[in-house]
Amino acid sequence: MKRNMLQTGQYRIEGDLFVLDEPFMNEDGKPVIYPFGFEPTLHRYRYDTLDKLKQGQNVFVGAMADIFGEWVPDSWIDDIFGICEKHPQHNYLFLTKNPKRYTQYGVPSGKGNMWYGTTVTNSEDMERIYQLPTLLNTFASIEPLLEDIDENISALKYLNWIIIGAETGHRKEKVIPKFEWIKRIVVEADYNGIPVFMKDSLVPIIGEKNMRRDYPKELQIRKRSEKVNKRLSGSCMLCGKTEDKNKMVTLTARAVRGGKAASFGHMCHSCFTKWLTAHNIPVPDLENKKEIEDGEEKL
Fold first, then answer.
1. What is the pTM of this model?
2. Which domain holds residue 24?
């Protein structure tokens, strides 16, 4: 493994593991994504990445790593779950070839936004499904599909989601899944009501018209962070009901004719209509005559 010895101050070694507290830079001042190849490396400077996401996302944690590999210290996993806890608006997907570690470590229970998966490539790997934690969201990434898994296919019924993909690249002995292998998985999934997501690598095998790109309903909902939710939500000045401001009537006032209007509150449509009626003021047709400014209705 080649290292840039000029940058030794940018990393430290804990046992046989690397820890980066800032990006590892090359001689040209550009960050090196994998400075130690695929040696276990904790990029601690990335801990604030989720702070920059305003809307809830589906976050694949450690997409190029196996966080639950036996070589990963519990302390690293502790840090990861600590960050997830700070940002509950996101869904977190974990994937490992060592699913028994989920239970050994003691992953958080009662967290609907945590998804625990395992990799399956052949019939023998299907045993990993039985090692996934019970009563939690679980999935299997059957990628690359290297053989027919019909012999142990009943294990799929314990999952909440199934991902299927073919081997990519130009390996000399590359395996191309047969249509029947894929169909058997889909039939079993449909029988058990499990959504299936197919990678684009399957298009040449089954055709675009047969592709499935389904997500569990929990992964289709995008939640907002508490900070963004507070900025976009408002309370009715009469009934106190809270909802998005763009679904309410924004109340504005100006001191002089032609002056700039300032917003001073919001009302839900029901209260707004009742208030105008109680004061013998004609109710405007907001649906047809509203002006849109920053996603809010202006009177």
1. 0.74
2. 1-45
